[in-house]
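Methods — Computational structure assignment.
A single polypeptide chain was analysed. Its primary sequence is given first, followed by the predicted tertiary structure written as structure tokens.
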Amino acid sequence: MAEVTLLGNHDAAVAGRMDYSYYYDAARHALDWSANVLTDENMAWLRSLPYTYRIGDVGFCHGSPIDPKAYEYIFALEQARELTPYVAELPEVTFIGHSHLCRAFAIGNGEVNDVVAQKFGIRRGYKYIISVGSVGQPRDYDNRACFVICDTDARTVEYVRVEYDIETSAQKIFDADLALNFGKRLFLGV
């Protein structure tokens, strides 16, 4: 029920929109498995997905907004600092995924800062890069699904965690004969 769906790196690999020969064996096997179980309609949909999307002054992309097709990570302060030359091009808030981590950075007044709060305000004069975590595979040692709620009127962003049926999700991975680690790590949130 999403208004916007973006092309992630694994989506791009499955859809033939990127080379994934450098992925490790288990990941390549999972990508090949996915490509084999998708219908032609599903594959056409994946191939049609955009790399980025923008609604007013809110942007969305999977990895770095500077070169979305490269799927660069932004999960550390140093990586966020690499965006400073492009700050004028960025929307006020950019939501990203890719790392599966909950991280937020504020860029403004010539500096880049971590935003360390479950809920925080969007301050005028700053640009924000917000990594939204992961609904299906959190990697921050909290195995609950994670998403954000952005209230554009109140100018707030809040990280929300919810329980989900990890056992059933992991069992589907095991039943598909994919790498055991892909299912086991769901229990740990890594």
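Note: Residues 143 and 189 are 4 Å apart (CA to CA).
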